[in-house]
Amino acid sequence: MNRPIGRRALLRGGVAISVWLAAPRVRACEFWSTHLRIYLPRARATAEGDTTAALYMVFDQVLATGRLIGVDTPVASGAEMGGPGAGPIVDFLIPEGRESVLYEDGRFIRLVGLKHPLELGLSYPLTLIFEKGGSVKADIDIDRTRDG
To answer: What is the pLDDT along the chain (148 residues), one digit of tens a residue?
Structure first.
């Protein structure tokens, strides 16, 4: 026997849908390895013809000293270190118990061989490879251009 849906059930369903539609869209901005947190992986939007983009992020809640030794993303053909004392390979020390930052005016990851522009407001897949702790899947959030 089919029972009609009561007003209370309809009201609950309507409220649930309304809350879901009105809620702001939350973007993931933190990712975890076995020994640290990766916070806010981001890059600036790029223009047509740009071949590189700088990648920034914060490493904190570090339980054991480690190194970031690789970065992989389908939006670029490779990655290297950028900034003071940078070399052509990804090698970033992350000391235990300290916050380490890859940032615009310091050391950062340079994505090389961009396959297309990085568009404002989008996010792209990223894999971070650590000497200890293996790989962590994350996303690169794209924010304003350097001048914007």
So the answer is: 555 566 665 455 554 454 444 433 434 589 999 999 999 999 999 999 999 999 999 999 999 999 999 999 999 999 999 999 888 899 999 999 999 999 989 999 999 999 999 999 999 999 999 998 799 999 999 987 555 4
Are 118 and 124 in contact by the 8 Å Cβ rule? The answer is: yes
Establish how many alpha carbons lie within 13 A of residue 130's alpha carbon, considering only the half-sphere containing its beta carbon: 22
Beta-ladder partners of 53? 111
- Going from the C-alpha of 55 to that of each of 7, 13, 26, 49, 118, the distances in angstroms are 52, 42, 21, 18, 11
Return the SS3 of 102.
strand
